[in-house]
Design a protein that fits this description.
Number of strands: 13
Strand content: 5-15%
Largest sheet: 7 strands, mixed
Order of helices and strands: HEHHEHEHEHEHEEEHHHEEHEEEHH
Radius of gyration: 21 Å
Structural class: alpha/beta
Oligomer: single chain
Distance between the termini: 61 Å
């Protein structure tokens, strides 16, 4: 038998989905599992959003539609981006996709040639490196370290730029760390992108989930509109994970390439879901602000409770809905700790190395679950913490 394409040997999956699969196996065997591994809000779209989708179906909006998306949705996104993050674009800059991952994949396919280097945050979303490798590119991580408050270090990034460096990926607020890039950091990243003629992929899927201050997009800085592609979608801010709706905001010169890729892959996004998305953007019921308020309450409780567990150290995230926990003092590897929590306590979480080598001493928990569930998760972990608590106590004697 002939072998598969070589790209399949260099691409990787997601640790969250692997843990989820094992957790579901345990559930099928009768175990009670608390799922804190997936970044999926425990909310659902507002009733008006579901109603808009149903009306669209009743009205026969289930046909082929324009390749970049229905005009009404692109118009609604123009208003949404202007009102929520002061980004001014035209409908022609927007291409709708069936989810953020495919939007990211298509953007990278349009930009990267074999041998091109892509700078990306580590720890960060696993798809950045995996897609780069699958396209024949060279992923080059830049570290988000605790000593720098999990902020990108522009000086360290500059040192990694070489003649084949073509793309810089930013992710603020970030997965898995919850870091919101400071204004001065983003400004320096923008300056180095202009100086070295880099294209920037700004992953802004968590832009609405920010707990303090005002969000600022990478496109806001001088010289960035013509070199920045925003990747965003509806899964996180509108609790529409299963709808698979994302979009790219791109400079006009890049849009035809994205449309060509759409024509050669998914043709168009389901028409009726796009009409539901229009209603989500209007958010007449205030669903997104209410969800953010609830996430804020959960963050406060969960971080406090996590810090009561021996050997756990967690700084409150500035955005997204992940607790990034330093477990160095437990004396356990993150992989072993997550195994104990899942197999013995029934709590599913992700070893930090799933997000890059920079995460090897961390565990990521999602707090997109109710306060009661989060409290129960901590109680379960405390019950098994004697496994590493004894080691901590012994080392301090």
């Amino acid at each position: 038998m002939r072998p598969l394409a070589s790209r399949m040997s260099v691409m990787s999956g997601e640790g969250a989905l692997s843990v989820f699969a094992r957790a579901k196996e345990l559930e099928r065997a009768g175990r009670s599992i608390i799922h804190l591994e997936l970044g999926e809000p425990d909310f659902h779209p507002a009733s008006s959003v579901n109603g808009a989708l149903k009306r669209a179906l009743d009205e026969g909006k289930d046909r082929y539609c324009p390749v970049p998306g229905v005009p009404a949705l692109r118009d609604a996104l123009v208003a949404y981006l202007r009102d929520t993050r002061n980004v001014n674009v035209a409908p022609q800059n927007i291409v709708i996709a069936p989810g953020c991952k495919i939007a990211l994949f298509m953007a990278m396919m349009a930009l990267i040639d074999p041998g091109d280097e892509v700078l990306y945050p580590d720890p960060g979303f696993p798809g950045y490196a995996s897609i780069t490798l699958g396209l024949g590119g060279v992923p080059v991580p830049f570290e988000l370290s605790a000593r720098n408050n999990l902020q990108p270090d522009p000086d360290a990034i500059v040192a990694k730029i070489r003649p084949r460096t073509k793309v810089l990926i930013t992710n603020s607020p970030g997965n898995p760390t919850g870091t919101v890039y400071r204004d001065e950091v983003q400004r320096q990243l923008a300056e180095l992108a202009v100086k070295h003629d880099l294209l920037v992929l700004s992953d802004e899927i968590y832009a609405r989930i920010i707990y303090d201050g005002t969000y600022k997009s990478m496109t806001s800085y001088p010289g960035m509109e013509e070199r920045t592609l925003i990747i965003d979608g509806f899964s996180k801010s509108f609790a529409m994970t299963g709808w698979r709706l994302g979009y790219t905001v791109a400079p006009l010169r890049i849009v035809p390439a994205l449309e060509m890729l759409v024509m050669n892959t998914y043709t168009c996004v389901a028409e009726f879901t796009q009409y539901g998305a229009i209603e989500a953007l209007r958010d007449r019921e205030g669903a997104t602000p209410r969800m953010l308020c609830e996430f804020s309450r959960r963050r406060e409780q969960f971080v406090r409770d996590l810090n009561s567990i021996p050997g756990f150290r967690c700084v409150p995230p500035e955005g997204a809905f992940y607790a990034w926990v330093d477990i160095t003092e437990t004396g356990q590897s993150a992989e072993e700790l997550c195994r104990i929590m899942l197999e013995e306590a029934g709590v599913a979480a992700i070893p930090g190395a799933a997000f890059g080598l920079g995460g090897r001493n961390y565990v990521r928990f999602s707090f997109a679950s109710s306060t009661a569930i989060l409290h129960e998760a901590v109680e379960r972990i405390l019950r098994v913490s004697s496994t590493w608590h004894r080691a901590i106590a012994g080392s301090s004697m």
